[in-house]
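DM from R.C. (forwarded with permission)

"hey, sorry to bug you on a friday — could you get me a structure for this? deadline for the figure draft is monday and I only need the backbone to look sensible"
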Amino acid sequence: YLNIVKNSKHRITLSKFRLSAHDLEIERGRYDKKSTTPEQRHCKLCQINDDLIMEDEYHFLMICPSFNKKRDSLLEKIFKIFPNVRSMNLKDQFIWLMSQEHNICTIEIAKFISQSMELRTKELEKTLYKDCAQV
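My reply, with the result:
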């Protein structure tokens, strides 16, 4: 993927995602002053709706409702190229996506992760700003 993804921002984000050097709660919880168990590292975007779901790479890429539109668009592009992937369960789709070497798929996955990480950051900043304004 390092040679396939030409957009440096997308390539860096994909690399960080694959190496677990990202800002998702599954990683943040390891380095907090009070280390939390993985099950306690909840997705802040889902938590807004009172859903306590562990935020890991799988949740981010395959499940988090905050990215449904972008994810649907990504998967439709991939299903057109590889229709059999549609019949896989989500865990297998995740593994397949993360091990993908097809140029178009890799570029689209990198783009999705990069754009979704940006969206996540903006949404969390809005929530933090709201919380601070209420104090």
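R.C.: lifesaver. The CA atoms of residues 28 and 41 lie 8 Å apart.
me: no worries. The chain is about 65% helix and 0% strand.
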